[in-house]
Design a protein that fits this description.
- The protein starts with 6 loop residues before the first strand and ends with a helix.
- α3 crosses α5.
- It is of the alpha/beta class.
Length: 384
């Protein structure tokens, strides 16, 4: 084994991390099958699962992830926060990975291995880009003494690998046109319902973390019953600083134009398909699919409007399978055609007959599921 770097698990849309009670009862990575974070920690591999905004855009999520890993107050950026009309600073956290960036007993820098499910993969990619390149807009528009280290860049040796599981690298068709409007309304409804827990001891069950927009409050703040319907409508329908916009084809393209594939980082992508073709070349959900998501998979598979080609109809009931391969602008290779893994290129794993939730443990045999994550870590830890 070449290294034993820590693992950072990044959850996707609607997800949660270790800051929430739900993670202890039903871990996001593992569900009822196996607690992946606990599994790695029991092996002596430091593994953490930051709690990122379930409806938050990639930029804000990257800032939240960074603050939780290194400790301190979330700084969303002076320029960014002014542009999108929200508070610059967020919550304050104790470091989940205080050893990150320090030197080990052999004098080597301690890097991390990101494993991101769904939008968590996009989050990991953007955070890595900021660590390396920083943000010129923030540098130019922020007094030097106020600038967050995240936006300064220059940290090219902090990430060892990025592994994405069913990640929408190039957007999702469910967030386009009419289905996109329906998804937005679902998000607003969920926020209104779970917003009722805001400021109560139950907030840690599922925390929306939209304090910066004045939609929620920090834990411990006195509870006050209020329906933020107007603020939520503005957040999701008038603002591009949210997850719904970043999941559109346009939003994903804008992110991909900012994020580079780095020559010193290993990249791996896994994606599944739970639909099957019909006589009309449309796609319908197959057997053993996650029940709640069948309708979404059906809509994505039979609605060709708004997708670049019929190739986009195949899906895992949440994301279009083709979108999970790799970012459009990134070099990639089918892993079955290579003899050794190299940094700076996306290694695309063979297509699997899985749905979106399978990567979290749904309908998976416990031992098979354990070996899947163990193999991910064994692979990246054996690479220099």
């Amino acid at each position: 084994m070449e290294n034993k770097y820590p693992v950072v698990l990044c959850h996707g849309m609607f997800g949660y991390g270790q800051q929430e009670i739900t993670e202890r009862l039903l871990p996001y990575f593992g569900l009822y099958r196996l607690n992946i974070r606990k599994m790695f920690n029991e092996q002596g591999v430091h593994c953490v699962a930051p709690s990122l905004g379930p409806f938050t855009g990639a930029w804000d999520r990257a800032c939240e992830c960074y603050a939780q890993l290194v400790g301190g107050t979330v700084d969303y950026g002076k320029v960014h926060s002014e542009k999108y009309g929200h508070a610059r600073y967020g919550r304050t956290y104790k470091a989940l990975l205080p050893e990150w960036g320090q030197k080990d007993s052999n004098g080597n820098i301690i890097k991390v291995n990101f494993i991101g499910h769904s939008f968590g993969g996009v989050t990991a990619r953007l955070l890595t880009e900021l660590l390396i390149s920083g943000c010129q807009e923030e540098i130019a528009g922020t007094p030097a003494e106020e600038l967050s280290p995240l936006f300064k860049g220059g940290n090219a040796d902090l990430v060892h690998s990025i592994t994405t599981l069913a990640s929408p690298h190039n957007g999702c068709s469910f967030n386009e046109k009419k289905t996109g409007k329906v998804m937005t309304e679902i998000c607003i409804l969920m926020c209104r319902v779970f917003g009722l827990l805001d400021g109560t001891p139950l907030q840690s069950i599922y925390d929306l973390n939209l304090d910066r927009f004045g939609i929620t409050t920090k834990p411990g703040i006195k509870w006050e019953l209020k329906d933020h319907k107007a603020e939520l409508n503005k957040y999701f329908k008038e603002n591009k600083d949210n997850i719904c916009y970043d999941l559109t084809f346009k939003g994903a393209k804008e992110l991909n134009e900012k994020i580079k594939t780095r020559d010193n980082i290993y990249y791996f992508s896994y994606r599944g398909q739970r639909t099957r073709p019909t006589a009309l070349n449309l796609q319908v959900p197959g057997e053993h699919s996650f029940p709640v998501l069948n309708i979404l998979g059906l809509v994505m598979g039979i609605n060709p409007f708004g997708v670049p080609s019929t190739e986009w109809l195949a899906n895992d009931l949440v994301i279009n399978t083709v979108s999970g391969i790799a970012p459009d602008n990134a070099p990639k290779v089918d892993v079955e055609t290579v003899k050794e893994y190299k940094p700076g290129i996306w290694h695309v794993m063979p297509l699997e007959i899985k749905d979106h939730m399978s990567y979290l443990g749904w309908a998976e045999e416990k031992e098979t599921f354990r070996k899947f994550y163990q193999n991910i870590y064994d692979t990246v830890s054996n690479l220099k």
